[in-house]
Automatic annotation (TrEMBL):
It is an enzyme of class 2 (transferase). Its EC number is 2.7.7.7. It comes from Pontibacillus litoralis JSM 072002. This is DNA polymerase III subunit delta. The keyword Nucleotidyltransferase applies.
Amino acid sequence: MITWAKMGRLQPKVSKMLTNSIQKDRVAHAYLFQGSKGTGKLSVSLLFAKSFLCTNRNGVEPCQECKNCIRIESGNHPDVHLIQPEGQSIKKEQILHLQKEFTYTGLESNQKVYIIENAEKMTTNAANRLLKFLEEPSKETVAMLLTENGQSLLDTIRSRCQILAFQPLNPENMRQRLIEENMTETTARLMSALTNNLEEAITLSQDEWFANARKLVIQLIEVLQNKPSEALLFINNQWMDHFKDRDALQQGLNLLMIWFKDIVYEHVENDAAIVFINEKERIQKSTYHWSKQQATSALTYILEAKRKLVANVHPTLVMEQLTLQIQR
């Protein structure tokens, strides 16, 4: 269950500003939450709605147990409205329906909350209708607009909102957040090294394709160390069959890069930084095969391979060349 105490560790500036507004009873009528996907914008919005409507709040923390908190958590509160894109956009009719809902007296109280997710996807007509809505604020109404690209919204909408910037989660905060989502320490370490997007990390951790990708990276390392003459055969027969497109191959290279970083960390005895911690014995064996300088060179080769993929060099040629470079 998300609380302000937890959110304060993930988004300290945003959390402080919002909790201060609750404590001082200075809640703005409209907020614009802007930041990349997975930074907690929707979680903060729902937590703020709970604090706004909770009947048994403890300071700024909602009780999480009253009828209002439970219904907000389940998405069934009659006075909390979540607007999301229908297809590729948020349409004028959705905003008109929202306005109509707000002409009625609140079912539980006069307090109402509406959250517009992916606000940058509003059509021009929808944005203009929302602007008229924002121009007539009610003290009992709180609007939260969520966006990955605040600059794409009308300046007139932005000027009527208190703008809060959500920062990308740093790896340590990300790891802790994933553990709170019941992810194992080992998996959380890897996911936080790959992405600062919470949703993407959770999806990856449950993806069978990704689990097989991790196994293939370890298999490639084993082949490079023990059967180098079969490395190119492995690349063509197994590696490329799994990493079939450029995005998939980029992910494979990301995993390979983490492995070679771990080799460097093992050389300098920085165990706390090792990501593949459950493969410690294999990493130690890798240090016998690649010196610190060789592992560092391998990282340079992998970065160059990633750049070549972006430049549309044939993926198989990129991997074959990378394999030969790492073998030197």
